[in-house]
Write a structure and sequence with these properties.
about 60% helix; about 550 residues; disordered C terminus; mainly alpha
């Protein structure tokens, strides 16, 4: 007997079958998430190794970046005016929320958090970019070579801006690829979404490193050429290109305006007292040979490429790596008849930019292999890691394709051999100390002991009383001692600095001078009311002198008057 209950007729619609494009997109999204998770594991392991060994603040520039981030919120005049002129502001704005915590400013975690995040995003972005052109085997080689580089794993634990810029390069290329693909397929909606996203990334790159300016300019020309060929000016993609153009024009224009407003010269970052040219002029010995690559594009290119090789593989394999990378790039170009590889070629911009910078912009690179047998700016070579990884991925994919035609069972062995070689390369670099880490260690041998002694002397000061001091050179001492920057009168305090130099004893309870700095000159000109308390000297570092004021109100309380 059939039941006559309150049964209802089902109105549920059958589930729509996903198209092959949707399935492919979802699969790629899952792959990218997996790559990010693996990268996060690598990142945390590297941090777990470096942090207990006090390696996060070996670079003096890392300490200086954290100083700028901290003084944005901790100074006598906090705010955007503390952003400076030569170093671009985006990395400091990223670090600022974390640098607000005193302990994180002191131990360097404030710089590690943004860098580690950018490293994870870089690996995920490189994987996704590789998968536009390559099957998973080639993408694995590209992403693994990049992600396991020991120098990059160290740098992503520091406040240096290389991990940030690598992330921006990769994601700008990724969004550019999506834009080009959208135009090629007639999907103007996709192109219209991808190009503004690329513009946002490029604006952050423009405010991170000056190479980002050249990188953005080349991306603009690629986007213009693609739009011109597609004749899609009146589509959504055409409107996106106008917005994209406005973004790329506005970003550097604002930086010019900032320099003009704050420092009286719209090119202060290029020719001001803290620019690369000014530093080179101060540190060069008259009559002595200039640094290698000075006014020589050929020598500059050799030094840059060698620094990139030494950061990626052991020295004896450097030339072999470059040969393999060139072969992989040729394989990519041969594939360009089927796919647009402009974003791939875009990643060859760094050697062009740095060759010119070394030759004509007073940006030296020193490597231990060649004269002057030292370490300086070797980290610039890290910008070649994305093109190294992708080129090797193309080469492995090409070799596997050839092998599959005759020996299909042996083709996976090429991938296995490639992965084993990458792991061996990583192990060899770690055993010999990565180039960028070696530079940090060598250049901090005298600075860190000096700043530690300086910090111990600061710890002996009473917890109250303003301090007149030049902070640009050894802010690491105040960082170690945990002294808030708002307790100091320093060169970034635009309203208090010059009056304090004219009356040191009346302006602060304590005055600290280093050899020949602005405060030392002020004390020499106005020594009245100052009593020498302490002197800290160290090998290859200036002597620091501590004075107590007998005239300021704080000084009177401390001296018992």
């Amino acid at each position: 007997m059939r039941s006559s209950g309150n049964s209802r007729t089902s109105t549920k619609q059958p589930r729509r079958q996903e198209s092959s494009a949707e399935l492919q997109s979802r699969s790629l999204r899952h792959e990218t998430i997996f790559a990010a998770v693996v990268a996060a594991l690598f990142s945390v392991l590297a941090f777990g190794y470096c942090f207990p060994r006090n390696m996060l603040l070996l670079y003096g520039d890392a300490v200086a970046h954290l100083h700028i981030a901290r003084r944005l919120i901790d100074s006598l005049n906090p705010g955007i005016r503390q952003i400076g002129s030569v170093w671009l502001p985006f990395p400091h704005l990223l670090m600022m929320p974390f640098a607000a915590r005193m302990a994180w400013w002191q131990n360097g975690i404030a710089g590690a958090i943004p860098s580690m995040t950018c490293y994870v995003l870089s690996v995920a972005g490189l994987w996704r970019l590789a998968r536009y052109w390559l099957r998973p085997a080639g993408a694995v080689v590209a992403a693994l070579f990049f992600a396991l580089n020991p120098g990059l794993l160290y740098m992503q634990t520091t406040a240096m801006n290389e991990p940030v810029f690598l992330c921006q390069m990769i994601w700008a290329a990724l969004f550019l690829m999506a834009y080009l693909r959208g135009l090629a397929e007639g999907n103007h909606r996709l192109a219209g979404r991808a190009l503004p996203a690329c513009g946002v990334v490029l604006v952050t790159a423009i405010y991170t490193r000056y190479d980002g300016w050249i990188f953005a300019c080349i991306v603009w020309f690629i986007a213009l050429h693609a739009l011109w060929r597609s004749r899609a000016w009146k589509s959504r993609a055409g409107g996106a290109f106008i917005l994209f153009t406005a973004m790329l024009i506005t970003a550097p224009t604002l930086w010019f305006a900032w320099n003009a407003r704050q420092y009286g010269d719209w090119l202060d970052f290029m020719r001001g007292p803290y620019s690369a040219k000014a530093i080179d002029a101060r540190t060069s010995t008259p009559g002595a040979p200039h640094y290698p690559g000075w006014h020589s594009m050929r020598v500059a290119a050799l030094y840059y490429l060698k620094s990139a090789e030494m950061g990626a593989v052991p020295v004896r394999w450097g030339n072999r790596l470059l040969f393999l990378v060139i072969a992989g790039s040729i394989a990519a170009i041969l594939q360009s008849r089927r796919q647009n590889i402009s974003p791939f070629l875009l990643l060859w911009v760094p050697p062009l930019f740095y060759t010119y910078s070394v030759a004509w912009s007073s940006v030296p690179i020193f490597i231990p292999l060649w004269w002057p047998h030292s370490w300086y700016n070797t980290r610039y070579g890290m910008e070649m890691l994305p093109i190294f990884g992708l080129s090797l991925g193309f080469l492995v994919a090409w070799l596997m394709g050839l092998t599959e035609k005759r020996w299909p069972r042996q083709a996976p062995l090429i991938l296995l051999a490639s992965m084993v070689l990458i792991i061996l390369d990583c192990s060899a670099l770690m055993r010999s100390t990565p180039l960028v880490l070696r530079e940090a260690i060598e250049n901090s041998r005298t600075r860190i002991p000096f700043e530690a002694a300086y910090a111990r002397a600061l710890d002996q000061l009473p917890p109250e009383g303003m301090i007149l001091v030049w902070t640009s050179d050894h802010i690491g001492a105040f960082q170690r001692a945990g002294i808030p920057l708002r307790r100091t009168i320093n060169e970034s305090d635009y309203y208090q600095w010059k009056p304090a130099l004219e009356h040191p004893a009346q302006s602060a309870a304590f005055v600290i001078t280093a050899d020949h700095d602005a405060v030392a000159q002020a004390v020499e000109a106005h020594p009245q009311g100052l009593t020498l308390m302490n002197i800290v000297c160290s090998t290859d570092q200036p002597c620091v002198r501590f004075y107590r004021s007998n005239l300021s109100a704080a000084g009177d309380r401390i001296s018992g008057k």
